[in-house]
Design brief:
Structural class: alpha/beta
GO molecular function, one term: oxidoreductase activity
Strand order of the largest sheet: 2-1-3-4
InterPro entries: Cys_rich_dom (IPR004017), HdrB/HdrD_reductase (IPR051278)
Largest sheet: 4 strands, parallel
Protein name: CoB--CoM heterodisulfide reductase iron-sulfur subunit B family protein
Radius of gyration: 19 Å
Keywords: Oxidoreductase
Order of helices and strands: EHEHHEHHEHHEHHEHEHHEHH
Number of strands: 8
Strand content: 5-15%
Organism: Aetokthonos hydrillicola Thurmond2011
Length: 302
Amino acid sequence: MLSHTLKYAYFPGCVAQGACRELHQSTLALTKALGIELFELKKAACCGSGTFKEDSQLLEDTVNARNIALAEELNLPLITHCSTCQGVIGHVDERLKECQKTNPAYIAQVNGLLEKEGCVPYSGSTQVKHLLYALITDYGLEEIKKRVTHKLTRLKCAAFYGCYLLRAQKSMPYDDPFHPEGMENVFSTVGATPIYYKGRTQCCGWPLSSYASTQSFKMAGMHIQEALDAGADCMVTPCPLCHLNLDSRQPEVEKVIGRQLGLPVLHLPQLIALALGVSFKELGLERHVVSTKPVLEKLGLY
């Protein structure tokens, strides 16, 4: 048993409170089942999803320095369930911590802008961590295993890491950015079988979808086909933007590639929570575009 209650400053991001509300819903259900306390940063701003720096690196750094400072004010690590948010905020935190040593004038500039708006200054005193790695390194897979009440036996899961979680930061202390095993280790912990395929660490195509949708859908379709051909019952992703391209746009993807797919795409906390006995109705699994019914049926939950 854990000797203390884990507490985090929770950065839900935009997509999990909009198009992927089931991610926010399932994160709350999972952390409640595990006894983890989340303190939502309701004053936090959008991380920018990597677009702010196209106009100004200072803008991206200042906005996200403020987000991090909100967690620092609570004296808690910042946790997010969005790979894109993790990539952007984590990268800013990494940059600013380096600037504290090499370019203190830049830190003063960032904090001067925050002070002008009445915001708490950035101090570099906390960590930015994705839910996946908080569960692995802070909570522990053995502790999760003890709480499994419904092993996901026979379910074959294909991880889709995406880009930002693995390669946005210079340092990746929790996993190998090119040959990760974090999600696969989680699958095994809850009784599921990991499926390996080429595209699991590649881009889902979401960044292209607004101006090159055909190319975007071809990328998504390639990954989904690979997972299906490898025998996957479902894909599992730690990123709501990947989920949008792989799940909500899967019908459009099918038209572009000329193949019927129908592969359910789950959010990571949904999968783990199912193994902990949380009702699928509490996890928003009915909100997915591609029906999750085949997964639930295979698990004897439907």
